[in-house]
Design brief:
With 369 residues, the protein is mainly β. It has no helices and 30 strands. The protein has a domain of 132 residues: Neuraminidase (6 Propeller), CATH 2.120.10.10. Strands 17, 18, 19, 20, 21 and 22 form a 6-stranded antiparallel β-sheet that branches.
Length: 369
């Protein structure tokens, strides 16, 4: 990738001798800190988008170089979705959280079109927005605070709401023009079959742990016909021991089933009960789960698991995103926070692997490996 192109005129030549300056004895200024990456979207082994609270960075050469491609205006970023290396959408909030504006690009953020959602929200709301597109024209935006879902059929230039106070207040994912999923309060799933007008709760498979606390994920869809959902379950035993397990179930042809997976149980998962474990589905057989101990990997759709111990320290993994069994990124926080949020003061770090997690290199925008 070539970085964000900035041109500078050649300095004018002069016939005057340069004025000498005394060498400074002051210590060199420290390098600026790496941007506090909050979320990444790995489109391919070369194209990755990364957002902070207010900035967007894009690489098109696998992390070799990064360019800032933030939409116009210094506004809080509330959501991101990438369709490919060129096309993507960023949701920003304005007017103290009262308005949500969706910025769309077709050239990796070099140029943006801005379009507000047709509704005002409560002043000062810390709005989160989930975006989902099935192609370059048809997409949805869910504003978590307002329980509202909006739809576009022209790539985000105009938005309409198929329902007001739809009953869903979390992340969404659509697999077709009518079929979509929503995660509500991280504890239950809902589904629509009419493009977002109505939603119904999805029953979890029988046999999953009952009682205690749980955090579910949106389905990781590889296609409209196949997806994987993970759930983090925590329960305190009569002897006051907290037992945390991660269970998976598979969606095939729109039907939920447990799919014969084996649960993961490890003490390091106890910090993920509220947020859910960071996981990614690479193929129908290959899945990966991040933890402070390393990466738990399965190559047989969850029937057996192995632990890949990294050569760097993962205090807490906030996100895992792989494009193959070899190439992937992890977003790590320095501390006990399993997610990079304003209430978590840990400094996020971004790492990249090209050998399945054996070796990792630092890959934050602006930080040399």
């Amino acid at each position: 990738m070539t970085g964000a192109c900035t041109s500078a005129d050649e300095p004018a030549t002069s016939s005057h001798a340069p004025t000498p300056f005394a060498a400074s004895s002051a210590a060199p200024s420290p390098a600026p800190p790496a941007p506090a990456i909050r979320r990444i979207s790995v489109v391919s082994s070369r194209a990755v988008w990364a957002i902070t609270d207010r900035k967007l960075f894009v690489t098109l050469d696998g992390g070799g170089t990064w360019a800032e491609r933030t939409p116009p205006g210094d506004r809080p970023i509330a959501g991101m979705f990438t369709l490919d290396g060129s096309r993507g959408w960023i949701a920003v909030v304005t007017n103290g959280g009262r308005r949500v504006v969706v910025a769309s690009t077709e050239d990796s953020g070099r140029n943006w079109a801005m379009s507000p959602l047709p509704r005002r929200f409560r002043k000062g709301t810390d709005t989160a927005v989930s975006l989902s597109f099935i192609d370059g024209r048809r997409g949805w935006a869910a504003v978590h605070e307002g329980f509202s879902v909006f739809r576009t059929v022209d790539g985000g230039l105009r938005w309409k709401s198929p329902c007001i106070r739809c009953g869903v207040s979390g992340p969404i994912s659509f697999t077709g023009p009518k079929t979509g999923w929503a995660l509500v309060d991280r504890s239950r799933l809902a589904r629509t079959g009419d493009g977002g007008r109505t939603w119904r709760d999805i029953a979890l498979p029988k046999g999953l742990p009952g009682g205690g606390r749980r955090a579910l994920s949106l389905p990781h869809f590889l296609s409209p016909r196949f997806g994987v959902i993970e759930g983090t379950f925590s329960k305190t035993t009569p002897t006051a021991v907290i037992v945390t397990t991660v269970e998976f179930f598979v969606i095939r042809d729109g039907n939920e089933s447990q799919g014969g997976t084996s649960p993961l149980s490890a003490h390091e998962f106890k910090g993920y009960v509220a947020s859910g474990v960071p996981a990614d589905v690479i193929s129908e057989e290959d899945w990966v789960v991040g933890s402070p101990a390393g990466l738990y990997e399965t190559h047989d759709a969850g029937r057996t698991w192995g632990l890949q111990v990294p050569d760097v320290s993962f205090d807490a993994v906030a996100q895992v995103d792989f494009v193959s069994t070899e190439v992937g990124w992890v977003l790590v926080t320095d501390g006990d926070c399993p997610s990079a949020t304003p209430t978590c003061r840990s400094a996020p770090r971004l790492f990249r692997t090209v050998d399945g997690g054996v070796h990792w290199v630092r890959d934050d925008p602006g930080v040399d490996a």
